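ok here's peptidylprolyl isomerase, seq below lol
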Amino acid sequence: SSSRSDPACGGTSPEPAAVGAAQLDGAEDFEVLEEDEDDLSELPPLEDVGRARGPLREDAQSSERGPGEAAEDPQEWLDVLGSGLLKKKTLVPGQGVESRPRKGQDVTVRLRATLEDGSVVEENPSLTFTLGDCDVLQALDLCVQLMEMGETALIMSDAKYCYGVQGRSPDIPPNAALTLEVELLEAQDAPDLELLSGKEKIGLANRKRERGNFYYQQADYVLAINSYDIALKVISSSSKVDFTPDEEAELLDVKVKCLNNLAASQLKLDHYEAALKSCNLVLEHQPENIKALFRKGKVLAQQGEYREAIPILKAALKLEPSNKTIHAELSKLVKKHADQKTVETEMYRKMLGNPRASSAPVKCKDKLTWSIPWKWLFGATAIALGGVALSVVIAARN
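and the structure came out like this:
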């Protein structure tokens, strides 16, 4: 496909920033403001929808003038998610419901995307992607599943299902709603992974990984994890084709990158056990992988395992002594570990009763003052009884 398709499918266009986000230093400090889940900002008015193409707009307007049309009127708007944030309208009917594409198929569409002011930001006569893999804008991925073969539809989407709070520099501003005109051209089963050549497998896995980087940069960590998981499935799938040693090495390199980025995304969602597993899988292949060591240390630290985390971060720092991020994290952990030991010592002291040791002598002293009279009385009593017994013996002899 042409280079114009890259932004829509999150391909090469967002990759430079995404790669930066996935680096050790950048990933840990990379933060994006959470998008408000309850944002119900108004969609563009219907009369503005078709501004990108005059004839389509006239058709839309004529349909609005005739609300008494039959129920199957193709101009009817469908609220896809029931929230008003994503709507679809059929402009040209397709070949019937049975012709709809299935998830997992490779579909080809004609795409034209415009902003609310009508300016065209995307145009691709033949964009191909795997349906349901989130390889493209969510608005496109969700709505194409509802299209029939040969159908042309208009899609109005809130920024949430397009480029979100960040937008896409330089042509799509933050929080921009988009109008998509889409025609479904073709749908076919995706190629058998077992029959892919080494080069094809590497290319497919990298495209999925790059899409994960795009979602990571958008702070959509759930979709990032989805893309990395798909990439790993592609890499791990069995093959009936022999790969060269170079291709095997490159596949392993892509696998390690996916696992590292997967761990970073899982860490963002506080999925500590899953992140730890991802880090360990990297370290099985590359025991001195700095990113995996660093993230494993962070995961253990988040779980309060400072004693285990510190030597792992020290190992990472030994491999890259100039890394400021590792330095900062290690310093923070050493302090937390010292604080933890102080708290534990104090807790043990309280459990053993040592804090009250100063009052113990007082108790002993009190006990001592009472014990002396009792001993004296006991002794005096014994002497008295002995005297009585002696008297009785003497009297008996007499």
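fwiw The chain has twelve helices and six strands. kinda neat tbh
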